[in-house]
Amino acid sequence: MKKVLTWGLCVVMLISVFSVCAFAADEEAPAGWAAFGDITITYDSELSSKITFDGQFNDWTEAGIKSNEIDALNMQAWTGTMPDDFSITTYFAADAEYLYIAFNITDSTKSIAPSSETEGTYGFDAFQIQLDFNEKFAAEEAFNRAVFYSFARREDGQMAVTVNESDANDGVYWAGQEYDGVVYVKGACTELANGWGAELALSWQMLYNQAFDKLEWNGYSTDGFELNLGPNTELKLGALVCYLDREHVENEDGTTAENLIFAAGTIEEYGQMSDASTGFWPESAGIILKVISDEDVAISVETKEPTTDAPTEEPTTAPEGESDTSEDDDDETTEAPTTAGTSEETDAPEESGCKSVAGIGAIAIVSALGAAVVIKKRK
Fold first, then answer.
1. pTM value?
2. Pick the CATH number of 32-352 from 3.40.50.150, 2.60.40.1190, 1.10.8.60, 3.30.565.10
3. Which of 123, 134, 338, 377 lies deepest, with the highest CB count within 10 Å?
4. How confident is the model at residue 342 (pLDDT cuts 50, 70, 90)?
């Protein structure tokens, strides 16, 4: 009888574990959902003469740059619900000095930063992209984010760029401003009938510097970290595209309420965005940008030498969300992107999938075995 009770209890506990696991993993992807995959970018040495930063996209098409639709079938919301008709039309291109990005966002609730806003991109609609230079961060498998860029527009048409440069520093840049003799970001944003859009050029020098510095800050080797592009060498960037959709509502007392409608991003497997500790790992970003060229190209980047000031302790694998960077980050999401914000966003999302119930399973099994021992010992 004691054996029957013992094994019966074990079976009950194990069934409970599997039931919890099945419940946690029942989040299903929409029909037709798939990770976006690869985007091929053809190098064009004449690109700077073909693209005008005027808020129009026809010159991108005339230059032979193909558009890519990012929408609810290759993104997942980690906060709120993404409208079925939401989409981001993107364009990617490259020359020796810049990575070019243009986007046209369908968004009927527009939240634009006031012209006096100096704190960067947080608290307003933001197009965000994580870029993993040469997939170095994914190769290390120890970073919750690579280098994260967040773009927002002001009422005066200025483009604000917030960059998660390292674990201890975020930078705020303005399109057109020069840093160390290089214009890090060129760009223009525009109001569209169904949303808003922007044209951007991110300098390879900026992308290189910020990836190099973040790797070094975390104690990883930067030996041989350089750009090569040619017929036998692709230049790859892992890319996670995110969007924060907000609205600002005037309260009766004259104050403004900031509402987060939804936040979503591309991902390798549906369900990963439900957990901020896994959803933003560079190896799971959902997009790989592949720059190709028929001839060897001298990318315009001044390489850096490793310094002796980098920390030597083991880097942490804890999520690099807002709390791991600057105070600005703390104000803006659960997410991951360099976001920070309202209480809606800062609440840690619940774990999903079997991974989140591993601890529960272990406890249940140990409890069952413990119960069996107690029963056996009783006389």
1. 0.73
2. 2.60.40.1190
3. 338
4. very low
